[in-house]
Amino acid sequence: MAIKKKISASSIKQLRVDDKRLNDTEIPGFHARISSSGRIVYYLFYRLDGKQVNLKLGPASDLTPAQARDLAREKMGEVAKGNDVHAVKKQTREETLRRKHLKLSIFLEERYLPFLHTRNPKTASRTVNHLRSRFDFLLEKDLDQITAWEIEKWRSEQRKLGKAPATINYTVNTLKGALSRAVEWGLIERHDLTKVKAIKSDNTRVRYLTEMEEKRLRHALKERGRNIRLARQSANEHRVKRNQEPYPCLDEVAFADYLEPLVLVAMNTGLRRGELLNLAWADISLTGKYLTVRARNAKSKEGRTVPLNKEAFSALANWRQQNPNSLYIYEGKSGQPLTDVKKPWALVLEAAFISDFKFHDLRHHFASKLVMAGVDLNTVRELLGHADLNMTLRYAHLAPEHKAAAVGLIG
How confident is the model at residue 95 (pLDDT cuts 50, 70, 90)? Predict the structure, then answer.
């Protein structure tokens, strides 16, 4: 007998063969059917011009309840406009049959990329290029011929290369998302990657700088700046001798280039790399001594305000004085925000004799110093822009020596 309940992960999990059908309480016509074998398939019932249609959205093995709900909502929007989505799906399937085979490369270029552009033009090309580069060996394969075994083999190779589980999981999930869309659009009946489960890993890693490491990092940044200034002096002497216009002198400015102010602001605000690199001067209030992380640049998609302490304020004020006409704080030669700092960052770490430390760990360092200074975890959570306190507990562990000192207080 059919039951009525919101279709969710829990209600789908509780669905039994005897129930036969689960009708969603929020989206009219959206329902899930379970067969005698236990296979669950999502459908959308609608009427258009007097015609009744039961549109198959896809099996639960390929679509999560949330994905099925989004798809149902999307299709109902089309129906409301007078479009027969079932006829469109049929036409798409026929088009696919005419092609006989749909290669991953063609799908990414002709179907998936335009779709991503409607969702987020800023990241669309990046996502597709990521898939092309990581799965270049799959590009000429038919969508429905991409197997879980091939992905498992690729994952094993990536692990041997030392890639982090989180990085591997992200890439595989990106491909899964693309293939799930192909299922939703009726281009393929199903995909095999539902068999590929995420790699479990300890994501509680918190790496922060010791007092000596921080001193060495700061010294390495200063030394790097000094070497850049010396190189500029040498270059200008060379140009003057040849009656060429010299480059701007770096002797009287606070920073030789962007890296030192970038690291100093990162250490004192806890911003993620993407949040930092996308900062514009319009996001900085030097009079109010705070910066604003825009919702579009935040991982949580929620904006936040972060106060500037003395060092962060000084770094930004001096850097602004050096770059009075720039739009973004950390600009490349094209006038666009920098997108990568891996090479100079790696060289500075090498010069400072610091290992196993990523740029993102500056965020851990910021959080750990706050906790060690006695700042309450909820304030740390707000500064970091975490959605809940659990994330803050993961990122802001106390250093062992501070735990020992705390226990010692009652000894």
Answer: low
Would you say the C-alpha torsion 378, 381, 382, 386 has a positive or negative sign? negative
For the stretch 301-357, pLDDT in tens is 788 999 999 999 999 999 999 999 999 999 887 788 888 899 999 999 999 999 989
Could you tell me if residue 367 is inside a domain? no
Q: Is the pLDDT of residue 236 over 60?
A: yes
**Do 190 and 62 belong together in one domain?**
no
- Measured in residues, the chain has a length of 411
pLDDT beyond 90 at 266? yes
Identify whether residues 88 and 222 lie together within a single domain. Answer: no
What residues make up the domain containing 105? 101-195
Please spell the DSSP secondary structure of 139-191, one letter per residue: TTSBGGG--HHHHHHHHHHHHHTT--HHHHHHHHHHHHHHHHHHHHTTSSS--
**Which residues are bridge partners to 59 per DSSP?**
41
Tokens representing 147?
A: 């197997």
Average pLDDT for 75-88: 77
Task: Print the SS3 string covering 342-409.
Answer: HHHHHHHHHHCCCCCCCCCHHHHHHHHHHHHCCCCHHHHHHHHCCCCHHHHHHHCCCCHHHHHHHHHC
Q: Is the pTM of this model over 0.70?
A: no
Mean pLDDT over 197-215 rounds to: 80
Query: Of 64, 94, 124, which closes a domain?
Result: 94
In angstroms, rounded to a whole number, what is the distance separating the alpha carbons of residues 198 and 172? 8
- Kindly state whether residues 275 and 307 are assigned to the same domain: yes
For residues 132 and 225, state if they share a domain.
no
Cα–Cα distance measured from residue 317 to residue 264, given in angstroms and rounded to the nearest whole number: 12
Is residue 24, in this structure, part of any structural domain at all?
yes
CATH number at residue 287: 1.10.443
Last residue of a domain, one of 61, 94, 127: 94
The predicted-structure confidence for 353-401, as pLDDT tens digits, reads as follows: 999 899 999 998 998 888 888 787 788 888 888 777 766 666 555 555 6
Same structural domain for residues 247 and 316? yes
Q: Residue 48 domain-assigned?
A: yes
Question: What's 68's domain CATH number?
Answer: 3.30.160.390
Sheet with 30-34, edge to edge strand ranges: 3-4, 21-23, 30-34, 40-48, 51-59
The pLDDT assigned to 179 comes to 92
